[in-house]
Every structure is written in C-alpha cells, then in structure tokens.
Amino acid sequence: MKNTYLKLPFLVILLCFASITLAQKSNFTVSDAINVKSISNTTLSDDGRYLAGIIADGRSRFGVDHFRFQDPSYINVFPGDFVIMDVNSGTMMYSYRAQSQVTSFAWSPDSKELAFLEQKGEKLHLMIYEVAKKRIKEVKIGGNPLLANSNLTWTPDGKALMVHARASDWLDRAMELYNEATKGPVVVYDSNKPFLKWDEIRNTNSLTRVLRVDLVTGIPQELLPESNYGGVYLSDDNQFLIFNETFPLKTSYVRNEGTEYQVAYKQLSDLDSTLILYKKNKQRRNFNWSDSKAKFAWVDSGYVYVQTLGQDDAKNLTKGKAYTDEEKKKEVKFSVNSWSPSEGKLLLSSDKGYWLVDAQGENLELVYEFPEDKEKAPSLSLANWSDDERYLYFSYSEKDVWRRGFVRYDLREKKMEDLIIDHRLYSGLQRPKKSDKIILNLSDGDMPGDLVVTDWTFKEMKPLTNLNPWLADKKMTRSELISYRNVDGKEMKGILYYPVDYEEGIKYPLVCEVYETFFANGYNRNMNLFANQGYFALRPSVDLEMGYPGEAWVKGITAAINKLVDEGKVDNDKVGVQGGSYGGYATSLLITQTDRFAAAINISGKVNIISFLGDSPKIGTRNYTAAEYGQDRIGGTLWDEPLKYLATTAVLYADRIKTPHMIMTGEGDWNVPGTNSRELYYAMRRLGKDVVWVNYLNGGHGAGAASDESDFHDHWNRIFEFYERHFNKKDSEKAEKD
C-alpha cells in the first residue's frame, strides 16, 4: 500500500501534464493541410550510400495549367526542394537554395555522380551532380536536342548516358495537330480515319528517339530512331541494347486491340543490326529480365520459357512437370516472379503456391503452399532474395486487421519467419544493388510518413527525415478499422476517423467519403480536416457488382452508418456524404436512392453516364471502355444495355432527390468536364431542389482543390460551411419553434 500511495501523485502529475499538452495543441487547418511535406522521386545509389529526392508541400501542384493537357509544348515538372543526403550520417549533402523543377534521377554505376533532368523555361536540360565536388554542372548536348521526360540510363562504364529526345521536326508536327484540334478555325472529325483526333495527338506526343550522350564532349549518337518506346535497357556487359516498341494501328473500343507490340535488341557494335525477340503482335508479351539483362523469361499459355540474349533457343521450364489433376493431365499454369541473384533459378507462382525451378528446367519444386482460404490469408509480395539464395523476403499484410510488415521464408527449412509485423505502414521500399541497406517510408498509420534506413533484419530503423515536426503541436485524428455487413450480408471493412476532441458518450456529426474499397489507413488530409471540424469521418467499402453498380453504395454505406449510430457515436440527423471523381458520381447517384443524408457533395463526378461517353475527348475512348467493362461496371454497350445506363444516370432521377446537394467542378478538368456535372444543377434547380454549383475557372480534376492556393481555401471553406448549415438546420428550426 505504501508503494501505491507513493506512485499516485506522480501518476496524477503525468495525467495533468498530458491534459495540458493536449489543450495546448491547435487545430489542423486548411493552411496546415497545404504545409504538410512529403518526399518523392527518391533514388538510392547502387552502393546504398546516397539518396536523392524532392521534398514538397501542397503548393507544388498549384501551378498546373489544366487547359494545356496534351499540349506538346507544355512541360510541367512539379517544383520542390531538391535534396541529396548521406544515408550513413543522415546529413544533407546538397540542396538547391530555391525550389527547382527536377526529375528522372539516375545514379552512376560507381555512385559518384547523379544524372537528372531540370526544367528551365519550356525545356528540359541534362544535369550532373558530382558527389566529390558537391556541385552541379550541365551537359551541353551537341545540336541542342529537345529532351523528353523519360528515364535516364548510364552506360556500364559511366562515360555516357542514354536519353530520350525528340526528332528535329517533332514539335512542328505535334503542334500542328494540337492547334488544329484546339484553335481550328474548322475542326473535322472523320470516322473513316484510323484514329480519333486526340488519339492521334497522344500517339504523336509519345514519339521519341534514343541518344547516347558522351558526358565529356556532349556529342550525341542516335541509337534508336523515332518510335514509341515502352522500355529501353542496356545489358551489363554493354554489348546489347534492348527495347520495347508500341505500334498503334487504330482507335479501338475493345481492350488490348488496335495496337501491336514488339521486343527487339541491337548489338551496340553494329547499330544497323536489329534482332527481333518478339515480332509485332497484337498480344503484348512481358519479359522478366535478369539483373544483368543476359537472360529473360516469359509465360505463354501458362508455361514458363527462358532464353539467353544473343541465342536463338528458348527452353520450356515447366511443360509436363506439374499437374493440378494427374488423372486428366491438367497442367499447372505459372507466372514468373523473379530471377535469383546468380540468375541460375527462378521463383514462379501458381494458384497453389510458390515454386522454384533452375534455369535449365530441372528440379521444379513447390516450395511454399498457399493457405486453403486465400481470401483470408495474408498478402505476400516478394521484396528480396538473399545473396546466398537461401531466403526469400516478403512484404506482409493481413486482410482482417492492421498487421503489416515483413517476413522471411527459409527455402532450405521450408519455414516462414516474422521479421517485423505491427500496426505501422511500410511503403516505398528501395534496395541498392551492392548493399544490404534498405530505405523505407514509415508511418504510424495516422501521421505522414518519414524515411528510415534499416537492413533485412529490421532490428534497427534509423530515421533519415523528419519532414513535419510541427504536426506534434496539431490536433490530428486517429483511425480505426471497422467491420460491418452490407444489405446482402457480406462482411465489409471501413476506416473510421475520430473527431480530434472526441469524448465517449457524445454523438457527433459524420461525413462519409465514398469511392470503392478502403482498407489501409495512413495520413489523410481530408479526414484530418473533417476531424478538426468536430466530425467523425468514414471511408466505407462497397461491393460493386458488374452489371449492377448503382446498388452497391446504398447497400454498403447505409449499413456502415447504421452500425455507428447504433453504437451511439454518430448523430443520425447529422450525416453527410461526398466523393471525388468516381466517388462524386457515387454521391449523386446515392442521394437519388435514399434521403438518409443531411447534405451531399459531388466533387468532379459525372451525373449522366450517357452523355459522359463523349464528354472527355482528350482521353480518347476511356469513357466508353470504363462504362462497358471498366470501373463503371455496366457490363455492355449503351445499345446492348440501355436500361442499365439509364439506371445509373443520376440526372434522370433528380426528382427523387431530397438531400441538399453541392456540385463542385473545375473549368479545366479534362477528365470529368464540369459540363456533365452541370446537368444535375440545372435539373435540380428546375425541380425546385436545394442545389448549388461551384465551378472553379482555374481548377482541374478536383475542383478548387486542384487549382491555386486561394481556390484551395475557398474549396474547403465552402465544404465546411455547407455541412455546418445543413447539419444544424433541424436544430435551428427547433429553436425557432421553441
């Protein structure tokens, strides 16, 4: 008892201190949301010593000119603080004094230099950072070619770089097509031509040629003529140049049609020699290359083939060696995961599990069998293969709870070992070629992540960045994974975000942000803004069914809300719903089916799926394919399934809407033009409904949140005001009656 009494004052002091600390924290505001920093484009040197990246906040995307989408002359590399850090010490080695527009980082093979492209005006320039001298120099390329924003590739000797550049007359050709479509004065659309006009523009914009630039002299040598290259690689022995080409034939409304694909290579000693690995074909073939690019594997009809570059013979590694049904001789269908470090083995996978086979086609073995209940089994993704080829390292994520991390599988002992598994989020793993160090982005699941350096034991995680220390003084939400059953009885998951000053026993307003399926948490700007308004926020999952997509949201979202109301957390009269893009479409459709919500907001979402088919010309056939067999899930054409298109078009049911509705659009939105969303505003106004349409003339896809800084504030303040007005409407009416 004596010890208990001695401890009590100290506990009281701790509790008081915690209360004072919480009270001193200030709300997370719209300005704060803009100020949150993240690091992107991180690139690790081969020796694991140096890391380059771009640190930026929300302002980096405010300068986009949405109206110039597909304009060949428009370059927009997002600005930020270009940094290079020493991974061993964690110190910053280099940082531009002002924000810069840099991209396409590539470390030299000896890790002594970093190549990148920098936007200056309307052009990209080839730049080199020298580690020893801590300085940047520009490589002046002979002839001053127009560079394209694409991968840079060092030659193995570190003396030259492969770059993508435009043909000398490319810009004139590309701008002629673009100006014809945008300026006219007469624009002709003719179905007898093979391509939609904007497909022709996009195809032309994809054309580049590949140059080898000598870093001492700046003299360029053309390695590949103008074409559409999907991937260009150099073999480690510097003998072969491998390249994938895409050849558009016509605009097609059917997936995987209208295009041919080819894979070829050249001997660098004879650039006139083009050797075909996979001749032009309408079926794309994906090759899995070994690290040295000396060998490659692919799958055809479920069989795995391997071949050595420069040799003609391909070997089938799996035919007649594994059966799902021995009696019927039904063979296992495989996919390729990875080459081993020695390039003597391959890791394959099938529905049954992971398999190991040597590159000669012998000793095919099932080394890890998947659990029978695959829907509940944790997700595994190969992250690394140990140098001695004994261990496989996988990222790990459970499907029912937030338990994530990494595991190691012992191929010799056939055992899985947990390395690190907890509630945190691990993402963006980078591993260098010549070091056991790895870089991760680590988050506690609620706060923005930071980079850490560790190794494959995960015993120590050394912080590399601390991008947002000021958030410790802000009120931030906490997330919780919830389960509920939709109307059909299927268990669903959702992410619930708590009001920042939450007190148990009080009923709070709720805003649902809808889209499709949500599971993983992580820092979320929108959810924090709502939590700081004193709301619960919820990202509920729905079970979308092909052919009947319009039913999913009302079946799933209302069930999730019921659960929270029944638990006494949420005020049933103060529930709002909103979504962006596809979620905006869901929101408008949802309120034609239920009057459950006090307010609803559609941000850049369509309301008429029929007129939307031709509403986004700059992205070609996307709206047709999305409706017929893509995200919209109609399951057929307008002429095959007209009633389903009618059933999922919100504007046709505007007379049923009882929920106050705000529609937010961006005038420069090339994805979901505001003219489509506008239809519901006119319909609801004609019917005497409560509706407001806010169109940001500088905005893009995302309305005011995809505009400038002033519009960003306006966007969010309007959202807050809209919910507050309608959440408190019944309270005001009741007060007036009293």
Automatic annotation (TrEMBL):
Q: Which GO terms describe its molecular function?
A: aminopeptidase activity; serine-type endopeptidase activity
Signal peptide segment? 1-23
InterPro entries linked to this entry: 6-blade_b-propeller_TolB-like, AB_hydrolase_fold, Peptidase_S9_cat
Q: Which UniProt keywords apply?
A: Aminopeptidase, Hydrolase, Protease, Signal
- Provide one Gene Ontology biological process annotation: proteolysis
Q: Which Pfam families match?
A: Peptidase_S9 (PF00326)
Is Hydrolase set as a keyword in this record?
Answer: yes
What residue stretches are annotated with the Peptidase S9 prolyl oligopeptidase catalytic domain? 551-729
Q: Mind telling me which residue stretches traverse the membrane in this protein?
A: none
Could you tell me what this protein is called? Dipeptidyl aminopeptidase/acylaminoacyl peptidase
Q: What is the lineage of its organism?
A: Bacteria, Pseudomonadati, Bacteroidota, Cytophagia, Cytophagales
